[in-house]
């Protein structure tokens, strides 16, 4: 059991799954499929990346995590995309020495360490370190004083935090002394949104190019690597400055249900949607969203979500700049 001197919050990230990519050709295979320059990844650094259709639209976003085996990587991806993603990737394995395996024996947790905690998280964003209960990957944050990490932990090696257990062994929390186990990941998902971290899901796949969800602004796209599906479209948008839409963060008060892929409108023009919702998380009476829209409509104000008479969107600040690259 890991001992800590400060508060540790654990959130079950049930929406995320682990895909293992292993084999002699695993790195070259991923290099040929993803937007990230996989060959530059080191053992101690993870990376955000995307998987695109031939038309350059994202079929998945994921976090690639190197392991202590140079021929094996883990990918954190949305659970609802997993089956279709594996099926599609296997179509391109051909004669490559690569095995794709869904790791049902691994579970993903969101770990938040208080500023006073002595829990040893990786120092840099996307840093990876090994601890007794699994792999830690430092996650982006919205600039709070708390440290966020994904913890990839073996189901077989976990027990309940503070001796809390469940009849389902997959719900057991890693053994970190003094940790507080939360029943859901609502707060964690809100922080993902405030950090401007896009997770493509089943409802939003094949809708956005990487630049629309700011993947290029948070080191999720390499413009110097070789070919991958959709590269020509992604590169054309980059080099010809044709990025007309960017991802923005907002909150919505009230109880109205907002769904991923639903439209965003300018209230003064209810017949013409100007964007789409990318990601949604709800905490208490507030809904937080990531959505795409052209910059010019933001200055008009009066944005609403879901329908023309929907709730008003209150723009929030992203922790990184998009103004200089927006079209």
Explain how this protein is built.
The chain has 327 residues and is mostly beta strands. It folds into two domains: 221 residues, Probable tRNA modification gtpase trme, domain 1 (Gyrase A, domain 2); 76 residues, Elongation Factor Tu (Ef-tu), domain 3, CATH 2.40.30. 11% of the residues lie in helices and 31% in strands. The chain is built from five helices and 17 strands. It has a six-stranded mixed sheet with strand order 8-9-10-7-1-11, covered by helices on one side. It has a six-stranded antiparallel sheet with strand order 16-13-14-15-12-17. A hairpin with an 8-residue loop joins strand 9 and strand 10. The longest helix is centred in the first third of the chain and has 9 residues. The termini are far apart. About 4% of the residues have low confidence.
Short précis:
This is Folate-binding protein. The protein is mainly beta and 327 residues long.
């Amino acid at each position: 059991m890991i001992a800590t001197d400060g508060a540790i919050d654990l959130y079950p990230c049930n929406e995320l799954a682990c895909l293992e990519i292993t084999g002699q050709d695993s790195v070259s295979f991923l290099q040929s499929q993803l937007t990230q320059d996989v060959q530059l990844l080191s053992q101690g650094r993870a990376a955000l990346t995307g998987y695109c259709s031939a038309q350059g639209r994202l079929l998945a976003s994921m976090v690639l995590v190197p392991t202590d085996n140079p021929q094996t990587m883990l990918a954190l991806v949305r659970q609802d995309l997993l089956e279709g993603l594996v099926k599609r990737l296997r179509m391109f394995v051909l004669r490559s020495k690569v095995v794709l395996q869904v790791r049902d024996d691994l579970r993903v947790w969101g770990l938040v360490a208080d500023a006073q905690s002595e829990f040893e998280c990786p120092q840099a964003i996307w840093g990876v370190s090994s601890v007794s209960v699994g792999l830690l990957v430092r996650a982006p944050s919205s600039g709070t004083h708390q440290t966020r990490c994904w913890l990839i932990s073996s189901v077989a090696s976990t027990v309940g935090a503070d001796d809390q257990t469940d009849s389902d062994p997959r719900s057991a929390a890693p053994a970190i002394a003094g940790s507080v186990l939360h029943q859901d990941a609502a707060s964690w998902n809100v922080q993902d949104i405030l950090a401007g971290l896009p997770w493509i899901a089943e409802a939003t796949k094949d809708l956005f190019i990487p630049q629309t969800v700011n993947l290029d602004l948070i080191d999720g796209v390499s413009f110097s690597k070789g070919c991958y599906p959709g590269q020509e479209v992604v590169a054309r948008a980059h080099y010809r400055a044709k990025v007309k839409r960017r991802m923005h963060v907002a909150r919505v008060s009230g109880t109205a249900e907002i769904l991923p892929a639903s439209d965003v409108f300018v209230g003064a023009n209810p017949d013409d949607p100007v964007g789409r919702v990318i990601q949604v998380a709800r905490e208490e009476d507030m809904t937080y969203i990531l959505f795409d829209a052209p910059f010019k409509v933001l200055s008009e104000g009066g944005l609403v979500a879901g329908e023309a008479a929907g709730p008003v969107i209150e723009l929030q600040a992203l922790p990184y700049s998009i103004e200089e690259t927006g079209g």
